[in-house]
Fold this protein.
Amino acid sequence: MERKNISRGYKQPRVWNDAVDLYVLSCKLFLNFPFELKKTVGNCIDSAHSISRNISEGYCRRSIKEYLQFLNIALASCGEFHSSITSFFRARQITEDDYEQLDSLHYNTENALIQLIKSLQQKMKEGDWSDSFIK
């Protein structure tokens, strides 16, 4: 059963779902990394997980300024994640196919996040945001 309320609205934008998918794919692809690289891989997985967590935390804060702040933190986590997978690929620690899967999903997530930020910046500029639970 899907439970819905106003605080779970962060699940509606595609970007949150893509970010969760990025985390899931990262866990799957990095599962069998050698022990010596577990900390590095763990940091990469955490940066992927940080994207969806910051989207949801910012949304639940209700303030547009705080929401934007957390979305920008999520965007920074996107950069950290991309840097990690690029390093893994250049070091030949992941295959080209794995890199392409991760990079494609990351690219979609990052661009959707940028579009969400732009949209909210426009709403803030126009004063078109309500942080009230009362309609």
